[in-house]
Write a structure and sequence with these properties.
Elements: E1 2-7, E2 14-15, E3 22-23, E4 28-33, E5 39-43, H1 45-78, H2 86-99
Antiparallel strand pairs: 1-4, 2-3, 4-5
The structure holds zinc ion (ZN).
Length: 100
């Protein structure tokens, strides 16, 4: 993986998939690419601040947290799911809007 500095044409909120943080890029933004040149993600300033070894640690921590989330989702998906219909959801949303 290689991280390069690129000019930032968008002022939108950005997401660092290496560590999972949201951030607002400045005039330039760091972007990570695979060896093949394929774009991976924008990289947050906190990741840049901790350097290459720190980035590796942050990526491993993120992977661990994603594994925990994936495991929790698998457990929840195996349980019974009770959900309102979309129509009911829309009606209650309209009522809440009217009461505001
Ligand atoms: Zn990051």
């Amino acid at each position: 993986m290689k991280i390069k500095i690129e000019s930032n044409d968008f002022e939108e909120k950005s997401y660092c998939h290496l560590c999972g943080s949201a951030f607002h890029p400045a005039e330039v933004v760091a972007q990570a690419y695979k060896e093949s040149g394929e774009y991976i993600t924008n990289v947050c300033p906190q990741c840049i601040a901790v350097g290459e070894r720190g980035i590796r640690l942050r990526m491993r921590r993120r992977a661990e947290s994603l594994r925990a989330i994936a495991s929790e989702l698998e457990k929840l998906a195996a349980e019974e799911i009770e959900s309102p219909s979309l129509d009911r959801f829309k009606i209650i949303n309209q009522i809440a809007k009217a009461l505001r």
